[in-house]
């Protein structure tokens, strides 16, 4: 009779040990994922706070065919931005196709071959604007961090 109690206790103890091991593994993995998500969110907030752009000029050229709208934007923040993740809205409409996107900086030559828009550099976006559409009066640039700027003084030539 003494062995059955000891054997039963050993089986219950082993079962509890295995259950605790499974519980600990599941909770440790979950906690690690939560911490990674919080870190990622904090990094995104820092990037957002350090991002700032300024529309320098917006010019609508009616002397070329097709008409072109040229928007120049400076990266005045401390965050490096992505050229391909930067969106342009004209008169409240998203512009899907551009003629070109060029990045120019104080120590670089203008290039369309980069996706990096570093602090202090200027992004120039050229868009074909059909003459049948209303004259552009408002342009908005929005970056991947959600930070943007609006220009309502579009120069028409």
Structure notes:
By secondary structure, this protein is α+β, with helices and mostly antiparallel strands. It folds into 2 domains: 1-50; 53-156, Immunoglobulin-like. Helices cover 31% and strands 31% of the residues. The protein is built from 1 helix and 11 strands; from the N terminus they run H-E-E-E-E-E-E-E-E-E-E-E. Strands 6-8-2-1-11 form a 5-stranded mixed sheet, with no helix packed on it. The chain has a 4-stranded antiparallel sheet with strand order 5-4-9-10, with no helix packed on it. A two-stranded antiparallel ribbon has the order 3-7. A hairpin with a 6-residue loop joins strand 1 and strand 2 (68-75). The protein is rod-shaped, with a radius of gyration of 28 Å. The chain starts with a helix and ends with a strand.
- Span between N and C termini? 103 Å
Using only C-alpha atoms, the radius of gyration works out to 28 Å
State the major sheet: 5 strands, mixed
CATH class of the largest domain: Mainly Beta
Count of separate DSSP helical elements = 1
Secondary-structure element order, as H and E? HEEEEEEEEEEE
What is the CATH architecture assignment of the largest domain?
Sandwich
How many individual β-strands? Answer: 11
Beta strand %: 25-35%
Structurally, the number of domains stands at 2
Helix content estimate: 25-40%
CATH topology annotation of the largest domain: Immunoglobulin-like
Structural shape: rod-shaped
Q: What is the topology, as strand order, of the major beta sheet?
A: 6-8-2-1-11
Low-confidence stretches: none
Structural class estimated from helices and strands: alpha+beta
Overall pLDDT? 83
């Amino acid at each position: 009779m003494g062995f059955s109690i000891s054997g039963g206790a050993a089986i219950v103890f082993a079962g509890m040990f295995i259950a605790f091991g499974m519980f600990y593994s599941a909770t440790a993995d979950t906690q690690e994922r939560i911490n990674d998500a919080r870190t990622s969110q904090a990094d995104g907030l820092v990037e957002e706070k350090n991002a700032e752009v300024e529309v320098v000029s917006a010019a609508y050229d009616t002397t070329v065919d097709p008409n072109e709208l040229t928007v120049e934007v400076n990266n005045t923040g401390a965050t490096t931005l992505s050229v391909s993740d930067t969106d342009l809205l004209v008169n409240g409409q998203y512009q899907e196709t551009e003629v070109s996107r060029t990045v120019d900086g104080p120590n670089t030559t203008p290039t369309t071959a980069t996706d990096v828009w570093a602090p202090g550099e200027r992004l120039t976006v050229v868009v074909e604007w059909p003459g049948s559409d209303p004259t552009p009066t408002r342009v908005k640039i929005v970056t991947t961090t959600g930070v943007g700027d609006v220009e309502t003084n579009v120069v028409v030539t």
